[in-house]
Amino acid sequence: MDPRDTRSSYVPLPTTADEAATASAASSRRRLNLLVGATSSLLLLLSLLGAALYISPHNGADHEPSLLKSNEQVQPTILEPAVSRGPSDGVSEKVSAVRSPAGSFPWSNSMLQWQRTGFHFQPEKNWMNDPNGPVYYKGWYHLFYQYNPDAAVWGNIAWGHAVSHDMVHWYHLPLAMVPDQWYDINGVWTGSATVGPDGQVYMLYTGSTNASVQVQNLAIPSDLSDPLLLHWTKYEGNPVLTPPSNLLPKDFRDPTTAWFDNSDSTWRIAIGSKDDSHAGIALVYKTKDFISYEQIPGLLHKVAKTGMWECVDFYAVSASSSSANQAIDTTVLATMSNGQDDVRHVLKASMDDDRHDYYAVGRYNAINNKWKPDNDEIDVGIGLRYDWGIFYASKTFFDPVKQRRILWGWIGETDSEKADIRKGWASLMSLPRTVLFDVKTKSNLLQWPVEEVDQLRLNSTTFTNLTIDTASYFRLSASRAAQLDIVAEFEIKNTTLEKAVEADEEYSCSTGGGAAGSGLFGPFGFLVLADKSLTEQTAVYFYISRSSNGSLKTHFCHDETRSSKATDIVKKVVGNVVPVLSGETLTMRILVDHSIVESFAQGGRSCITSRVYPTKAIDDAAGVYLFNNATAGPITAKSITIWEMGSSNNRSFNGNDGEP
Ligand code: DQQ
């Protein structure tokens, strides 16, 4: 039978209230009968019975009456203009895209309190943005970050500081640096750490001067014997670098960690900017002592029309299959400077224009100071992103303990500034992610939460060989669904895939109708932070599209549009194509932590982070559902494991004995 014929019995997930409300009760009943009568559904019911000890099954039809009743319109509100923060000071927008609407949602304190995370890093209060100068020093992982000590909005930027033995449990330390000199009085902005072979730590950061000029400054620890690096001394001769005359004084910022070049025994750093044709550019300087610098002629790289490059990051990854798990310490090894086949160089820039972090894999030639992408079509700013959701101004560092490269990104808010002020905090940090070159695809990175995150896993529930029929969803047991780690592997039978008769190659996450849409092979996946009536739910799913030549493309998406009944929030459908190689099953990992959902597909080839602000699906009312809206046939979840996650219980520095 042509699979399209089955569409008469198709019951999609609820869309918006108006769509749901137009469906008559009579037609609901008819679809229910059709579903129950269908052989496939009987098989589904049998398979569900088999799993009855673990799950409480409901198919879509069971819930329909309440869905019809309670689903709400999720439409953008007409928003008031708001005060823009950042651009006038010479950095990208630091206000969420939501302006405080005239009639904003009546947030209760308990709803707002619930949004604080359990195991993602965030300061105790106030505003934070970019991760700065991550470094391992004498037994501690140090994380510095852009911080406003006075308010939950961007401004008065100082460096917050926290330390951890495992990057999961943190101690909040006193501010590391504050704007107190003419060369950083308008903000101690983003910077990076370099540890020299003699153990000296060099912190290079951007200062916004009393005239709002962007200059680079040096700070070093006041006491290298202090593993907590509590005190920092700004170099008396700061600034060490001022903007070159051909660039705008507000477009010269965010120095990278230095890499060592054997050819002339100098350290090199890159700094982002833009030229007068609006091309994003990275400049390179060399130094022997971190005090005197010389600009290397030419640019490391430039991409037309990409605008200002913030927070450039540049590092080497191993491309050899045999040592793929080995990250490369570019401060010790000379691997940045040669063109071996088994080394690739990653260039990342945070695009001021669209506030996303783009990277490309390529090769660096230190002799002519040029980096070239392996594939021009996916150059920096026009191709791959670290994350297809909200994730910006990221930075990596090399962990000498476990010989790995670790990435952190700033996860902003997508609610209103008004709500942030009421919460008393804004923004948080992504989970620390290990970064490796994908030796299978040879075209992208793999990002994965550091293994230390796993220690927070508490009790788990595993389901195996769960078949989910078309147009179905059911609840999976998870009692503390606000903090979860979900790992799942899906399979679509070849016979199902072969049913494809029409191409839908135009599919994309953002235009494909979200989780409530339907195609032959998707969407299917999870609804997290979902209440029983599914009026609030955040969908994490795959959708397989087919091109006219028969090839399949797998899309990995988040649908935030039903994540909250509140309207003063940005809610989108986000995601992208994820590479799936022949013979691979589809895998995803989802970390739910109150107002953040951070997901990884195919072992980290594609990542998506969403901020979500449910009003009903909180505390005990939050649940997890499996759903399948694919019309071509059932999907098999070969295995699903759901762990409830503990909290990292970060603590304040006690200040008495110098040890947290
Ligand atoms: N954040 C810093 C800048 C950087 C921007 C200012 C990126 O140094 O360019 O808070 O978010």
Task: Indicate the topology.
Elements: H1 17-22, H2 25-37, H3 39-50, E1 55-56, H4 60-70, H5 109-114, E2 126-137, E3 140-148, E4 158-164, E5 170-177, E6 188-195, E7 201-208, E8 214-221, E9 232-234, E10 259-261, E11 266-274, E12 280-287, E13 293-295, E14 301-303, E15 309-318, E16 343-351, E17 357-365, E18 370-373, E19 384-385, E20 392-399, E21 404-411, H6 417-423, E22 425-426, E23 428-429, E24 433-437, E25 445-449, E26 457-468, E27 472-476, E28 483-491, H7 494-497, E29 521-530, E30 538-546, E31 552-559, E32 573-578, E33 586-593, E34 596-601, E35 606-611, E36 623-628, E37 635-645, E38 651-652
Parallel strand pairs: 2-22, 5-38
Antiparallel strand pairs: 1-27, 2-3, 3-4, 4-5, 6-7, 7-8, 8-9, 10-11, 11-12, 12-13, 12-14, 15-16, 16-17, 17-18, 17-19, 20-21, 21-23, 21-24, 24-25, 26-37, 27-36, 28-33, 28-37, 29-30, 29-36, 30-31, 31-32, 33-34, 34-35
The structure holds 2,5-dideoxy-2,5-imino-D-mannitol (DQQ).
2,5-dideoxy-2,5-imino-D-mannitol binds near residues 92, 189, 190 and 253.
